[in-house]
Amino acid sequence: MKQMLAIMMTSSLVLAAAASDTVFKGDNQILRQYFEGVPDFNSHSGSLWVTYRRTENVKVKDWTLSIGPKEDGKASSAHYMLNRYATGDCYQVSFQYRCPKNFTWSLNFSQAEFGPWVPTVSRTVPASSEWAEYSEKVPVPLNRHTTTLQIFSPKDAVVEIRNLCVREIDPKDIAGRELLLDGKPCEAVYWMQTDDINTLNDYEAAKMFRFAFQRCGGKKIPLLEAVHEDDFRKNALYIGKAAEKAGVFQDGSLLQNIGEGGTAIRIGAGRAGIAGHIYGGPYLGVVQLLEHLGIHYTAEDHFHFPESGDYQVVAWEKSLNPAVPIRSSEVRAGRVELKGYTPSRCADYQYYGGGYAAHPGNSVVSIKEFHQTHPEWFAMQADGKRQTVGCRDVHYCLSNPEFIQLYADRLLQIMRINRHCFFYEVYDGDGGGLYCRCPACQAVGSTTDLYIHFANQVAGITRKEFPQNYVMTTSYVDTLQAPQKVFPESNVLILYTAYHPTPWGAQNNFDHPYNETGRKYLAEWDRLCAGHMALYAHPVNYREMMNIHPKFHFNTRLTRHIAEKRYKVLRNCFLVSTYSNGVVPGSHSFFDLNIYAQTRLSIDPKLDLEALIDRFLPMHYGPDAAPVLRQYFDIIQEAPMKANWAQGCE
Description:
Helices cover 25% and strands 22% of the residues. The protein folds into 3 domains: 6-169, Galactose-binding domain-like (Jelly Rolls), CATH 2.60.120; 179-321, Chitobiase, domain 2 (2-Layer Sandwich); 341-642, TIM Barrel (Alpha-Beta Barrel), CATH 3.20.20. It is globular. It is α/β, with parallel strands linked by helices and 650 residues long. Helix 8 crosses helix 10 (447-462) and helix 12 (552-564) runs parallel beside helix 13. Strands 1-9-5-11-3-2 form a 6-stranded antiparallel β-sheet.
């Protein structure tokens, strides 16, 4: 681990090459967005590089990452999570840097069931007052779960990094079982360069397939970029746009069936292709092919797969359009795409919410920035006073035309950078009773009307440049009831939350009498805002993380409902696998099963839930343990029902 395999440094050389985006292509693990920076209004321009709720002196400007000491004199650090579908045993890390003092960088590894690993790979880079080159080949453990690149500043100097490149290097060979496509060995998995969005989707989906295949006893199949015409005529698996160009789909009828988030798969004559919609369609196709091969991902680093023999698939084709196109889970939940979720970046708040999954909207306009020059932009409270610095959970005056224009202009700046994201939440701060009570806001209508009015106004501005992007507001503590006279426009969604204890007082049992009001509210939302609905799910009890009674019944009933009603988005507030946070369970009992059922039902609400349970338990726990665990699961599910027990989220 400590052995340095290759290192090149030219500390005294002044480099003529400037920072640019040309390095962020192909198999570079570093995405170009991380060096584009964030809009100037964001007080923390290095927010992509900082983990949630950490304060670091990290900035990005002119394709250069700058890391400096904090105000208290302590060192800062920037973090980057590398691709979780890695199969290599080495990383080639290279960058240009400038720093008058020595600084360090490291690769930190974790494995889901054992927490952080020691030792971390750490390297010291010699000081250079001029731009210098650094490159090193670093060995890494093959069975790591996560790998985080971390760069540390000195305590008394700023380190500048540009043209950062991290490339994975595969072992020379990994023996294993063949993948036979209609009887012919698969020679490679191909992806190709197109636009930013499809290239990243296709490349990561290709990596995901190869990762899962190798983890389940498969041989190493080369992962290659298709460039030359001959590349498109191999006995190979083609992902995304490469599959379309290779002609795997022949007359294209399957491709014509692809809807939002959908996928198409075809295998024949020794060739295979997976294509899909930009909402994660290629990933969904990979999951479908893996499960067709008998490979099931049940939890963090837990696969169920055939014990012996080559993996074979004969001529086969399938198209699938999920009922809920965007199925988003927490980043900390691990390899979410293998579980059936879409990539989190499709509805990613890092650019304006610090990666926080809820209430990101109030980071677009800071109260510190405008409380003196534009106090009228902030919510008037019940006492007739506007919110000011130091208030709890900032809320806005949502009818103010100048504020709406500024907010929309800033959101546009975010959209221009965050090209992989299509859904933007604009609901302001957390907390109840803090909405604006000024005469103009009250004249709009109910509180719900006011929030939808604001979303409509913002979306009306952003859709001129980004008609494909959605603006989302939330049915939350002050907006529980459906609108009375203002309804969502074409690219506006309502994130419904079955959260508040008044309408949704029994989170163990969807059909409990305490939920009668919630069910009525939900039915009214569905009636008035059909085609504009999304769900922000609260699938756990947040005060009792070790509660043995999972919210399985409530979650699956609600998931099936939104799938039947064709909601556009499903988001989760803290739904993670058992070992996502290390050795401490991340959520209630049976949450690996909960995740499995949620993803499957949100894709196809017609599936038999009991059959899903009976399929999952032996795959995850083994055939001997499954019957006993099924009995236990039924007991802890039935106990709250029999006792007519009602328990809220918090």
